[in-house]
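A quick aside before the break. I want you to see a complete sequence-to-structure record at least once, exactly as it would be stored in a machine-readable document. Don't worry about memorizing anything.
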Amino acid sequence: MSTPHPAADPAAGAAVKAADRAHVFHSWSAQGLIDPLAVAGAEGSWFWDYDGNRYLDFSSQLVNTNIGHQHPKVVAAIQEQAARLCTIAPGFAVDVRSEAARLIAERTPGDLDKIFFTNGGAEAVENAVRMARLHTGRPKVLSAYRSYHGATAAAINLTGDPRRWPSDTASAGVVHFWAPFLYRSPFHSDGEQQECERALRHLEDTIAFEGPATIAAIVLETVPGTAGIMVPPPGYLPGVREICDRYGIVFVLDEVMAGFGRTGRWFAADHFGVVPDLLTFAKGVNSGYVPLGGVAISAEIAATFDERPYPGGLTYSGHPLACASAVATINAMAEEGIVENAARIGEQVLGPGLRELAERHPSVGEVRGLGVFWALELVRDRATREPLVPYAAAGEAMTAFTAACKKNGLWPFVNMNRTHVVPPCTITKEEAKEGLAALDAALTVADGFTA
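That is the input. The structure line, written in tokens, reads:
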């Protein structure tokens, strides 16, 4: 059972729940079918409800609280900035905005030294696509089927997962292709090298049939997040880089979820030795304490707009409170070794622990990930790899698994037939082991649904 927290106040929780149900319209939900948990507080890797139940946050909320909940240095920075300058229009030069841009540019790969700030990841993707189209003068953008890029107009059309379907205009200039995923290979490959080679050939064929001169950009999540945390095979991203260079296509890496320590590096691109032309970020840049995202821009693309106005902007671009929280977050991550901690937890605790669970639980088909960015593929049958629930469908098995996690004080990130293990980058070894124990118990429930 969940560990009680001393600040239990069920009456207050009931009032919060009632007010929510009366007035709040929730995203991605059938409003009459949801029962949102009323949250009373959070700290570090934990949050708790008004009934006194604590939950180990193995979701990092929406995979964004990389620095954990209520980090005192970030909270103090927001308070100090609010006392000094709460807001100012994007057209002014502001110290905290410039410092946030400098700290981000220092950590991005290559010459991505100019930063365009947005309110979040979807807007970052929107602007990256706009920049690519204006830079090349071409209309089309390619993205992978197994992907998620956001819920705004261009971003949702770039998205490959089923959340795109209700909003797909079929006129957004987006073409989808298959990226590598050996466990469910669309190329019938027998190993990572073959999967890489066949995926690159498929991408080249797609470009050839679409017309290289019509394609502005290829947009890829460096390591796809919500779609399944499929770490690309060695050579794939450099291969995409080479293809883009050959055809004059802008290479965009979406690091909204994978960036800022999540994979055990500042950016996931660092694992693969690849430099994109544009890199989108959000989430972990300030752990979501204040909405912030952006695009890191190469020198070549930035020069396109030296004499030509960039036709885009946002009222809250580079908001002082958001930038102050980013400065404090990045500095704290550097000073406290938080990126290194994420790498260490992945190598020493999560990776070995999850693989050990897979050996004992027939419901686990595959374990994959980096740092504090892991996924368990849950299956009915290991031999056939039949998913525990069908693609794009809910089901009793995953519902029961999720309930078992929460009963044991673990808040999971569940999507289709997968559970993602994505705790804060600050999680301790002891907390990670506690989470694995709760996951172990929940997987026993999932095992009951195997063939």
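Two observations worth writing down. The chain has 13 helices and 16 strands. The chain has a mean pLDDT of 96. We'll return to this after the break.
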